[in-house]
Amino acid sequence: MQTLPIGTIQTMTVARKIDTGYVLQKEMLEALLHHNETDKELEQDQAVDVFLYQDKKDNTIATTKLPTIVMDTYGWAEVVEVIPNLGAFVDIGTTKQILVSLDDLPLFEKVWPKEGDQLYVTLGKDRKGRLLAIPATDGVIGRIYEVAPVELLNEQISGKVYHTNKEGSAILTEENYRGFIHHTERKEEPRLGEVVQGRVIEVKEDGTLNVSLRPLKQHGIVDDASDILEHIKESGGMIPFSDKSDPDDIRGTFNISKAAFKRALGKLLKEEKIEQRDGKTYLKE
Question: What separation, in Å, do the N-terminal and C-terminal C-alpha atoms of the chain show?
Answer without folding.
Answer: 80
